[in-house]
Amino acid sequence: MIKMLNAVMVCTSLVGLVGVYALKYSVEDIASDKVALERKIDRQEGDLSLLKADWSYLNQPAHVAPIVARHQEALALVPTAQDQFGRMDNLPMRPAAPDTQALDALLSSLDAGIDPIEQLIEAN
Amino acid sequence: MAIITEGAETISLDGGRKSRGNLTKARIRWVIVALLLVFGTVGGRLIQLGATVTDSTIEGIERDVITASRPPVLDRNGLEMAVDIRVPSLFAEPRRIIDVEEAVQKLRTVLPDLNEDWLRKRLTGDKGFVWVKRELTPAIEEKIFQLGIPGLDFVTESKRFYPSGQEASHILGSVNIDNQGTMGIEKHMDDDSLALLQSIGLARGNEMTPVNLSIDLRVQHVMYETLQDALVRYKAIAAAGVMMDVKTGEIVALASLPDFDPNNPSTLFQDYNGVKNDRFNRITSGIYELGSTFKTITLAGALDSGKVRITDRFDARFGVRFGRFTIDDFHGKHRVLSVPEVYKYSSNIGTIKIMQQLGKDDFRAFLGRIGMDKTVPFELPEMRKPKVPDKFSEIVAATSSFGHGLSVSPLHMVRAVAAFVNDGNMVPPTLYKRSEAEARQLYERVISPSTSAEIRYLMRLNALEGSGTQMNKLANGYRVGGKTGTAEKVVGRTYSSDKTFAVFASAFPLDNPRYAMVVIVDEPQDENAQSGHTAGWNAGQVTGRVVQRVAPMLGIAPDFSEMLDTSLVPVELR
Question: Hey, are the CB atoms on A82 and B548 less than 8 Å from each other?
Fold first, then answer.
């Protein structure tokens, strides 16, 4: 009986031993993974801070203005003058009814191959 | 086991069982003592280990403090003005360095600017930690790792970076290598709360709430660029400008030239054209005789007192005599002038007469009411006390009425102008975002709304017909009004007429005032042969150029209808 009990206890302690060591090593593995991850996060946060700084630098008016100046001639860029601003109430009101005659005339001229807008552009 | 003894002494013998029992007890005692000793040693060692304080400081400073971060600073639209970046810093542990000479030679291949002797001295010894070089780039970090020198390692530090470069230098200020603010809003944040947060360990890591400033970086950029252009165009020695929201007191733009690079704070102490310490903030810590722009203040005080009415007329035919001195007009009309004419023609005589009608003590009291004799409450630590005499003599009162004999900062002027156009409600300027409701709590009435309306009319009139026409030509449609000031600078002991200090104090749009602005140009030269040399031709033009570009950004549409201007005219003058 006692022998039986001893055998059981030896087995239990062996299992316990293996279990505890397995747990110890897995915890160590997880801890080192954690440290590695923390380092990675730290490095990425560092990279991110640099990228963010870069992004805000590129977005600065101080950075954009020289680019505008460089392409001013090619793109014919000039500051907006006061008379280039319009107002909503300067727009004409919508006509009460659609101008069917004018529309018909436009469509028929288009059918005939004459584009009045194209003519306007060419005239200028 | 019998023991034979001589004599009559009693012999006592222990039984075999008892003596064995005693022996066992003794053994148990020994085992207990041994166990106690062993556990005692273990326990003692544990206590010893627990009591040792590991030195986590870096040359006396906590490691946490060095990596402490600062909150990002954003402009009012959320664009970054100051951010933290993580950079590696190189340190050495001299006691772990095996071959100092080898380490020195190898290190100098990557960092050749390090002094050899200094480095050798630094790496020798038994210290646990010494800085070698702080705030390096990741590329250099990689190269030093490749060298494989034992006893050298890196720690990641936070470094402040200002993406806007020099554009907002005087607003932002700068930080030292330990990331503590030394100037500008950075210093203010530290004095305010950040230092406390850092000391109790809250300001760590990246999660700090960003700070929103009142600055609009687009407006700031235009202001900066226009002032830079002014330095070249008018060959001036300095120029500065400030724009303030009249309703909330928020400073929208503030620039002062010459300036410095906050990413390299030592540039602040560089000479500018051979002049030492010239890169200070002229808006807050420069005090000047602001010349005729002061007439706005004199007239506001006089009109508000009720002793002078806008319909009054003043005799400006002859100069005003004070003993040996006679004060005369620069653009002399030498006739009887109405109040709007005094302002429009910038008549010194007329202004003195108006001030005298108000009374010199009342005038001094009014200057006190609009805070001209005290430092403006403001976030920037760079402030200088204005110079305003406590009591005015007749002559000082007379010169003060047109802005000579007393010195205030441009910030004083912009706050006063803002109050005058904002129905007389003065609000302290701020660099932080503030809503109109919050600002209303701080309102302080300095003149009545009706006087405010008269001042608006006078300022607009001066832009249409007076010295502000150069400005109005450029900013046509945005209803700007303002007053010029051309102060002669004191050279030696007398006022010089060829070295002047030009000021333009303005507000726009005057039909519904939203922004006040003061621009100064120091020692401007004529741009070309046709241009004049008074403030309207330099500070005025700068103002016009700034408004022309920023008004659309600030949501102000141009309007050319004359009705807006005529509606500004007070009923008495229609």
Answer: yes
Quote the minimal CA–CA distance from B529 to chain A in Å: 27
**Chain A residues with CB-CB distance to B220 below 8 A:** 61
Q: Do A53 and B167 touch (CB under 8 A)?
A: no
Pairwise CB contact (< 8 Å): A46 & B221: no
B228 min Cα distance to partner chain A (Å): 13
pLDDT in tens, chain B (574 residues): 455 555 566 777 777 788 888 888 999 999 999 999 999 999 999 999 988 876 666 665 666 666 667 888 899 998 889 888 888 888 888 888 888 888 888 888 888 888 888 888 888 877 778 888 888 877 888 888 888 888 888 888 888 889 888 899 999 988 887 778 888 888 888 876 655 565 555 555 545 788 889 999 999 999 999 999 999 999 999 999 999 999 999 999 999 989 999 988 888 888 887 788 889 999 999 999 998 999 999 999 999 999 999 999 998 888 888 888 888 887 777 888 999 999 999 899 999 999 999 999 999 999 999 999 999 999 898 889 999 999 988 889 999 999 888 999 999 999 999 999 999 999 999 999 999 999 999 999 999 999 999 999 999 999 998 888 888 888 888 999 999 998 888 877 777 777 889 999 999 999 999 999 999 999 998 888 777 788 888 999 999 999 999 999 999 988 888 888 888 888 887 7
State yes or no: ipTM above 0.85. no
Q: Answer whether B84 sits within 8 Å of A85, measured CB to CB.
A: no
- Measured between CB atoms, does A42 come within 8 Å of chain B? yes
What's the Cα-to-Cα distance from B233 to each of B101, B226, B227, B538, B570, rounded to whole Å?
57, 10, 10, 9, 38
Look up residue B370 and give its two tokens.
């609009």
CB < 8 Å to B156, chain A: 42, 46
Q: Are B410 and B518 in contact (CB under 8 A)?
A: yes
From the list B256, B292, B452, B467, the catalytic residue is: B292
Q: How far is B40 from chain A (nearest CA, A)?
A: 27
Give the type of residue at B520: I
Q: Which of B138, B221, B476 sits opposite A61 (nearest CB)?
A: B221
Instruction: Indicate yes or no: CB of B83 within 8 angstroms of CB of A46.
Output: no
pTM: 0.80
Could you say which of B85, B218, B476 has the minimum Cβ distance to residue A82?
A: B476
Mark yes or no for CB contact B161/A53 under 8 Å.
yes
Residue B564: what are its φ and ψ, rounded to 5°? -60, -40
CA distance B466 to B463: 6
d(CA B103, CA B116): 11
CA distance B320 to B351: 11
What token pair was written down for B297? 């203040």
Whether residue B71 contacts residue B204, with contact meaning beta carbons closer than 8 Å, is answered with: no
Q: Do the Cβ atoms of B86 and A49 come within 8 Å?
A: yes
Helix, strand counts (H, E) of chain B: 20, 18
In chain B, which residues have their Cβ closer than 8 Å to the Cβ of A63?
163
Active site residue B214: no
Give yes or no for A49 touching B (CB within 8 A): yes
Task: State the alpha helices, DSSP H only, in chain A.
Answer: 2-59, 61-70, 72-75, 100-111, 116-123
* Nearest-by-Cβ selection for B79 from A42, A59, A85: A59
Q: A5: burial class by Cβ within 10 Å (0-12, 13-18, 19+)? A: exposed
- Using CA atoms, how far apart are residues B500 and B495, in angstroms rounded to an integer? 9
Q: Is A38 at the interface with chain B, CB within 8 A?
A: no
